[in-house]
Amino acid sequence: MIVNYYKLPLQLKRISRKKEHSKINLAESVAAMVHLIAITYYGECKHDETFGCEIWEHDFENIVNTQSYRDELKASIRKTIEQHEPRLTNVNVEVRIEQIENKIIKRRIKSRIQLQVEGTLVLTNEPFSYTDQFFIGPLSYY
User: Fold this and answer.
1) Which of 28, 88, 125, 132 has the maximal Cβ count within 10 Å?
2) Fold exhibited by the domain 22-136
């Protein structure tokens, strides 16, 4: 059974001109889906409001309890991956939140969220690992 996975973003102009579209392997396709889940906020996908994660629910808020926020993010991302990415099983999500400061004015500017997702590819039973990071607000004014 040959399965084609296409590289995102889709280049519809190439397809409509009957040209070959870039292809990727299974692990890259799953990684692209995990990335899409992480960069999508709940409700952004109009046909399925459960697609996405909570990272963007708290953008530009002052995070008071980092531990609680981290646990919410882990649960949110894991739940969405398990619900929307059936090619991945035994999903484990780790989230680190780090405060980034402006070295000139010595104030916290942004929070960096580092995401690590591991699991097993269902089709091949191979281990899967994906790492990503995002910067979220709030901006600190002086």
Assistant:
1) 88
2) Nuclear Transport Factor 2; Chain: A, (3.10.450)
- 109 contacts: CB under 8 Å, gap ≥ 6: 100, 101, 102, 139, 140
In sequence order, the β-bridge partners of residue 39 are none
- 133 and 116 in contact (C-beta within 8 Å)? no
What is the spatial distance between Cα 9 and Cα 78, in angstroms, rounded to a whole number? 24
139 — pLDDT class (breaks 50, 70, 90):
very low
Burial grade of 12 (CB within 10 A; 0-12, 13-18, 19 or more): exposed
Total length of the chain: 142
